[in-house]
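Figure 2 data, in text form.
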Amino acid sequence: MDFFNSIRDAGAEDVYTARNNIYPPLSLLIFKIFGFLISDELVDLPNRQRVLLQFDQRCMMVYIIFACIIILSMSTIINTYVNRLKWKNKMKEDILNTVVSFVLIISYPVMYCLERGNIIILSMIFTMFFIFFKDVDNKVIRELSYISLAIAAGIKLYPAIFGLLLLFEKKYKDAARLIIYGIIAVFVPFIFFINKPETLSISIDNNLTLAMISKYNYLAANSGSSALSNIIENLINFATNKKNRLNFSSVSIQNFVFIFDPLNTKLASIAMYITEVLALIGLYFSKKKWQRIFLIAYVMLNIPSASSSYALTFIIIPFIMFLYDEEGNGYSADNRPKIDYFYIICYALLLTPLPILWFFHQQTAKEVFNSLGIPYQSKINQVIAGFVYQGMFFTILIEQLVYRIKNKKSAKKLPEENTVIEEVS
C-alpha cells in the first residue's frame, strides 16, 4: 500500500539513496508527520515485513485520518465552488447539486487513490483550489490559491504546469509570486532529509550535474552527500523509463502506437511530442474554461510517467467546470450543445467505477488476452480509460477547429451584408 510504504520510507535516513524514492521532500514530510502517530518500531520495519503495517490498528487509524482529510477537504472545496457559481450565474437549486461532491468522491480515480493511499489525491485537491479560486475578487483567497498550487507542485511536481494559466491570462506579476512560492515548497523541505546540510551548495554545483550525466549514476548515492541530487536522479530514472508495450494503467498517446508497433519507442515519443504541442496550441485558442483546464491537464497526463490511473483524478476539475457551466451560458439539460452529450458520456466512462465482468473467469480472460498479445488487466476502467481520454482530446481539438472556421466565414459575410445594405439605401 502506497500510504504505509511512504510512511516507512519517510522515516528512513536513506530515503533518496538506498531506497531510490522519487517523491519530492514535501510529500515525504507529510508522510513523516503521519509517521509520528505510529510507533518507531513499525516505521523502522525492514522491507520484507512492511505488510505488517496494514494489520496494525494504530496504522489503520492514521490511514482513516488521512482518508477523512481527503474526503472533507474535497467536498468542502467543491461545495464552496458550486455555491459561488449558483450565486454568480443565478442558477436554480437542483437536488442533484447536493450529491455531486459525494458522487465524485466515490468516482473510480478517487476510490483508487484512497484504496492505495496515494498522495497524488492531495496534490489534486490543492490544484483544484487554485483553479476554482484564482479569479475571485478576494485578494487573500486569490493569494491562497497561488500558495495552494505551489504546495500541489511541492507534493507531486507536475501540477506546476497549471501555472501556465497565469501566463496565458497575462498575469505576469502573479506568475512571478507563484514561482517564488513553488521554489519554497519544492526546495525548503529538503532540510529535513539532508544528512549533511553543508553539502547542499556542493550538490547544486557538482552533484546535480553528475546526477544528470547518466541514468544510472550512483556517485551521489554512494557518497551520501545530498538528498537534492538523489531525488533528481531518481526522477530522471523514473521519467526516462521507456515503456515498450501496451500498458493499460497509462492514458498516454504512446499506448496507441504500441498497439501497432510494440517496440517502436521512437515513434511513440514523436506521437507524444506532437500531441503535447497540439494541446498547447488548443490551450491558447480555447474559448471554454473547462476545455482550457482539460487541455493543460492533458499536457501533464500525456507524459507516460505521469499518466497513471491515480493521476486521472485531475479530470475531476474540468468535469465540475463543464457540469456547472463556468462561463455562465445558462445551459441546462434542455439547451446544451449536442457535442456536450458526447463529453458527458466520456466523463461518465472515466469516472464511474465499472464492474469487472470477467472477475470469476480471470484465468480464461488471461488466456484470451495473452493469445491476442495484450497484457491482462482485470479493471475495465483501466482498459477503456486511454481510449476515452484520447477521444475526448481529439474531439475538443476538432470542435475548436470547426468553431474557428465558422467564425471566419461569419466574419466574411458581415462586410458583404453591410455593402448590400449601403447600396439599397
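Caption note: Residues 196-225, 238-244 have pLDDT under 50 and may be disordered.
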